[in-house]
Amino acid sequence: MVNLCFFFFQAEDGIRDAQESRGLGDVYKRQATAPTGDTISFYLNGKLRRIRSGELSARTTLLEYLRSHVGLSATKASCTQGGCGACNVSLGYLDKRTGELRHRSINACLRPVHALDGMAVTTAEGIGSTATGFHPVQERIAGCNGVQCGFCTPGQVMALYAFLQDSAGRGTITPAQLEARFDGNICRCTGYRPILTAATSFATQGNAEHSEQVQGLASPEFAPYEADPRMPDMTGLSASEGARMVGRDGTYWYKVSSLEQVEAVLSLHDRASCRYVVGGTMAGVYQPDLSTKTFIDISAIPELHAAEVTETGLGIGAAVTISDLSALLAEHSERSHSFMQLHHHIQRVANFNVRNAGSWAGNLVMARTRNFGSDLSTILMGAGATLHILEQGQRKTLSISDWLWDSDVCPHAIILAATIPLCAPGEFLFSFRQAMRYVNAHALLNACFRASLDGTRITACTLALGCPQEHAQRLEAAEEFLNGKCIKDPGTLAGLLEVLAAVELAPELQYHTTIQRNGKDAYRASLLQGFGFRFVVKLCLEAGVALDESTRDLGAAGPDMHQSSTPVKSKQVWAPLKQLPEKHPGLTPNPKPDTR
Prior knowledge:
A hairpin with a 7-residue loop joins strand 17 and strand 18 (473-474). This protein has helices at 12-22, 62-70, 124-127, 136-143, 153-167, 175-180, 192-200, 259-266, 322-331, 337-346, 352-357, 360-370, 375-382, 400-405, 476-482, 490-501, 521-543, 549-557, and strands at 39-44, 47-52, 88-94, 101-107, 120-122, 243-246, 252-255, 274-277, 294-297, 307-309, 313-317, 386-391, 394-399, 414-421, 427-435, 443-454, 457-465, 473-474. The strands form four sheets. A five-stranded mixed beta sheet has the order 2-1-5-3-4. By secondary structure, it is an alpha+beta fold.
């Protein structure tokens, strides 16, 4: 792991000393000019593509480029919001922290084509067709009857292909991992059982119970799978001087390689019309903002990709993707009780394809500027994380609350990194989330509660609630009530529920209808009390104490607590049937004519 000397992971004195030693008290005192390159280069299905300044708009997405400019139509246009996965492609790139080649599935409908400089894109046409022969992924999905209309199939193929490519040589592949990679793919007609049957045939561990053949169907003979070795050399693609791309519609795209270049670009344009870009996934939530004329791609700035675990916490650069943040938390979960809790919560945010492209910092920017119901701002606030930003040439450290609520923070401040502290002995963190679906859905309500215990007494606590009003905020009245209380005392839970019942939640107007005039307001209020109840129960379990009978009665009379926020072991309800019913249509194959 590359150590880029993130001095803001240290104490405040260390921050000041490092700034002085590196001359970074004011980073913009060093002269820098805006990027001047006029071409971006990337590989598309193994062939080098170059886009020159003036050819496309800075708003042109990869999906539009593939279908309208190149004529590759396997990548489908459906929701254009990153929710259905029909436009999935595989993105190959060199990891800026490790230098390793990675493969990730992303949504082509969200990815700006100018953000592909130095990368390799693979579409369904690039891995196999009737003309060149099918790839094992395509062959197995078709052979397991995982295709009906076929509209969404290319996206499923590329989600699976990218995962298998990225997993080559990285250990075993389990059925649960394969299942999770489809959380951003929606199929409206085939049903998921045959698709998952095909996918789990690639598992290298625990595959026996998922690969049973259904009696009455012929056992297909599939070609053995090996990771595709074909990948062009991308080391020399990205122009060292960055790029300045002028759009045919008057927009600008800058690819910068340093923080100094960011200021140089801002000095050339109206700052109100500029926006920073890493993965471009905001377009999946909000329609394109036509007031933005200048896009500044900050994903090539090396220090924004750093990650480091110290004695006090995990430091992560702002351009680290949500997927990589989740993986880092899981990798270092033995260091802190909170890390695995945060990892599980992040796995429910958006979907795998969006998490592969979007950065955690961009999520927090949306929370601040768009009042987005961000799960990440809630859980990072609950975990006590601090942000390190660059504001008007000065590096500053502030809390998540200050970032969201302090109106004095410059609108064009850049998030550089965050530090997620380790839980101290006796400190426990639990996060909660309720949505219309387990994944791939915005939260109706989310929360992150943390408490320190001395025996059974709470000595300190932080309770963060996601977007009860404008932004995520601390529940200070509940924190004050809990401090010093004994978790075994029935009055503790009863009093907490009373305090939470008084919390005012802003109405979710999208659920207000003529039939249900108050929407889900009462339900969301009950969820908050449910989160509080579960928090106390979990603390009791961690402390090894039994709940008082009266406390159990409170839970029985309160909101439904049966759905856990922590994923449980899958029951594999989609596992193949042992025997198809007699005269089942699946017993009679209905081949489709070959199409190109």
